[in-house]
Amino acid sequence: MCGIAGLINRQGMDVSSKLIEMLSLIQHRGPDASGISVYGSETDEVSLRVSVKRKDMEEVLLNIVGQYGTVLSPPVSQWIKNAIFSELQLAIDDADIPLLHAAINSIEGLYVHSLGKGMRVYKDGGTIADLNNNHKIINSIATHGLGHVRMATESAEDINAAHPFVSPFYPDLSIVHNGQFTNYFNLRRYLESKRAIFKTLNDSEAASHLIAYAMRENGGDLEDALGMAGEELDGVFCIIAATSRQIGFVRDKLGIKPLLLFEKDGLTMLGSEQIEFTALFPDVYAEEIEPGEVRVWNI
Amino acid sequence: MEYIDAANLKSTELNKEIISKLERYGEVTVQNPHSMHNVAAGLPTQGKVVIQGSTGFYTGGFMEGTTLQVEGNAGWYAGDNMMEGELLISKNTGCNAGTYICGGNIVVYGNTGSRVGYGMKGGTIIVCGSAGPWAGQMTMGGKLIILGKAGSKMGESMYKGAIFVRDPEAGEKIGSNVFLDIIKADEEQELKDLFARYDITADPAEFKVVRPMQTGRHTYVLFNPDLKPELSRKMSV
User: Fold this and answer.
1) Of A80, A194, B151, B233, which has the fewest CB atoms closer than 10 Å, so is most exposed?
2) Nearest-CA residue of chain A relative to B93?
3) Contact call for residues A237 and A177 (beta carbons, < 8 A)
């Protein structure tokens, strides 16, 4: 299984803690990993969150970042279980962001979790409670975000296989996915021919590269990219995807994996199970998304 | 009236408590179900159970004659595999309500999700509100009645059975091997009796019926077991 959540807030709210609350209500859908991505109001500061395999690789990371931009604050690194999570702020030209993203990912032992303006991805193995306790999640006013709890079905339980996924093709995009794809290897071959760098054997990573590549080619049209993904991806799935300006979803044509929507008081909530919405409203009747449906909101 | 406080119970403990109360008193009310899964699932008894609150998945699964009332919402697969009995849900349910039932009656006074009555082989399901897509998918018998707005692809891959709808746009929402028929006189009477029994205000004459097409392209034999639920029943109350 897996469980997903999405939240759009138009009235100033701490999105990350609400997402964590929503996800904790569907913790039963998967204990293997969890993660959220949150998009704040646009700033000029670019944040980078990276998982680093060994302490001595931090030097390598700083060198690469230095080639494309300027580090604004010393990296804050946390040792959590067997991995190091580094976060730093940098100044960088927009055009260089995808190049930096690809450059970091091309090094074994470094994996970008998020790279963008006002965008942060927090993900790790283990439960939502672990994620909340172990990571310093910046709870600031944000506009929208998405989250995921994972039950590993198609690849190993590994913190880098946790969702949300991002891709150097379009660094601003993050996706979460509930379901399985059956055409992973064909997709991977195609995407690698477009110079995608795969860091895991996870089918959701392939989806992130596919959608990001479409976004790059179509000038950032999320609805178009998700529609294409709904056609190209073979399998059962609900995908929630976001950039700093948009958030949307696609559901598979047989409606095998669940996705519900509830809107009230300026809030839009997406979730796998109705109980997630009780984090914000006590008794709701959520709309079940039509199979094959694609919908995108502009922020 | 006997009560059970389910606030700190796991579903296995709760169900054991319910059975023991039913054996002794014939009825029980459960408080604080806090949307637990598997509430009143696998009850091998008759008797009356009232749940004051909402329940999670698989509510009242595999019932063999119990009357179960949920005074709240129920999650996915409510009342699945029922042999006989009654399941009444005051508010809404999730998807796949009444999956695979062989007999008995389920009434959802609110809305239901997708695939209500999936593979049902007998029995009756009444949805007073709206239903999601694929209502009555692959049914092999029984009656599904939808008073509110129907979802798309109703009756997809039906073998036997009937889906009663009064949604004016029903014609555009049926599956690929079914057709919309007019209601027969005996069916009208059956609906009239059901509505009276469950306090539902509706006019049976407004309903049309989704039935599988008999094209003759496929010949199959439906296995029609002679169900004797009273023989399998482990205890009577």
Assistant:
1) A194
2) A285
3) yes
Interface test with A, best of B10, B35, B128 (most A CBs within 10 A): B35
> Quick one: A138 and A265 in the same domain?
yes
User: Residue A183: pLDDT above 90?
Assistant: yes
Over the stretch B181-197, which tens digit does the pLDDT of each residue have? 999 999 999 999 999 99
Residues A36 and A57 grouped into a single domain:
no
Asked whether the beta carbons of residue B75 and residue A274 sit closer than 8 angstroms, the reply is yes
Considering the domain boundaries, does residue A216 fall inside one? yes
Give the chain A residue nearest B37 (alpha carbons): A28
> What domains can you pick out in chain B, each with its CATH number?
3-236 (2.160.20.60)
User: What's the pLDDT at A136?
Assistant: 84
Substitution target in B70, B95, B118 with the highest count of A β-carbons within 10 Å is B95
Q: What is the pLDDT of residues A34-70, one digit of tens each?
A: 999 999 866 778 999 999 988 889 899 999 999 999 9
Q: Final residue of a domain: which of A61, A84, A117?
A: A117
- Answer whether residue B226 shows pLDDT above 70: yes
Q: Which residue, of A74, A95, A117, is where some domain finishes? A: A117
Q: Which of B56, B92, B134 minimises the CB distance to A285?
A: B92
**CATH number of the domain within which A158 lies:** 3.60.20.10
Q: Please give the residue range of the domain that contains residue A81.
A: 44-117
The answer for B 115-174 residues in CB contact with A (under 8 A) is 132-134, 152
Nearest residue of B to residue A278, measured between CA atoms: B35
Q: Please report, for the domain that includes residue A64, its CATH number.
A: 3.30.70.260
DSSP conformation class of A127: -
Q: Is the pLDDT of residue A292 over 80?
A: yes
Q: A38 and A48: one domain? A: no
What are the tens digits of pLDDT across the range A125-157?
989 999 999 888 877 778 999 999 999 887 776
A285, A287, A289, A293: best mutation site toward chain B, by most B Cβ within 10 Å? A285
User: Given a cut of 80, is residue A216 above it in pLDDT?
Assistant: yes
